[in-house]
């Protein structure tokens, strides 16, 4: 999410937070410094020798006191509100322009090293495949918020079985599969809907759905799609 922000925007948010902190300490609540120092001393004394019970009590009193002191700061509240607003802006933007993943055709002359994943894990934001040819490897995607589109129409699947695993929190998942590819799907969701080719499930409430094309076990190429999410829709289409 932060990689979508310009450096100037991040700097502005941080500067405003620092100014609010200074103003609060100087003009409104000078006791914040004492509270932070007192909590830090309790944490230090408790952590220095954690075995005795009274040291443990001191440590956790210090932790709780420090957390409440930090959360009571105007600057911290401002940063929390700013992060929530930025999150909502990026979420609605991702709804308008969903992430689109389009694997490219295999070129054996160029290969991705084993230590470099095909798709990087991102909790929020855009994710794309490399802008060059690569050898197919199974896809494992972790998502947070927003829609995801996975397009398999521009790649050559392996001779055995390709595996695509998508674990998502909130948002819709759309998968485009070529007509000649057999499919095996396992989908679980807490809340949402599912549409796989001609099969449609209007409501999914804490269920696991399975779908397999007729010739999946005997015909290749084939792909196994494993999806799980908290809330969102799954749609698998032929292209």
Any overview of this molecule?
- The chain has 239 residues and is α/β, with parallel strands linked by helices.
- The chain has two domains: 2-95, no CATH class; 99-238, no CATH class.
- The chain is built from four helices and nine strands; from the N terminus they run H-H-H-H-E-E-E-E-E-E-E-E-E.
- The protein has helices at residues 7-28, 31-48, 53-71, 74-96; strands at residues 99-101, 139-142, 148-151, 162-170, 173-177, 182-196, 199-212, 222-231, 234-238.
- Strands 1, 2, 3, 4, 5, 6, 7, 8 and 9 form a nine-stranded mixed β-sheet that branches.
- Strand 6 and strand 7 (199-212) form a beta hairpin.
- Helix 1 runs antiparallel to helix 4 and helix 2 packs antiparallel against helix 3.
- The longest helix is centred in the middle third of the chain and has 23 residues, at 74-96.
- The two termini are 31 Å apart.
- Mean pLDDT is 77; it is low at 104-115 and 128-132.
- Pfam families: LiaF-like_C.
- InterPro entries: Cell_wall_LiaF, LiaF-like_C, LiaF_C.
- It comes from Halobacillus dabanensis.
- Residues 123-236 form the Cell wall-active antibiotics response LiaF-like C-terminal domain.
- The chain crosses the membrane at residues 12-45, 57-88.
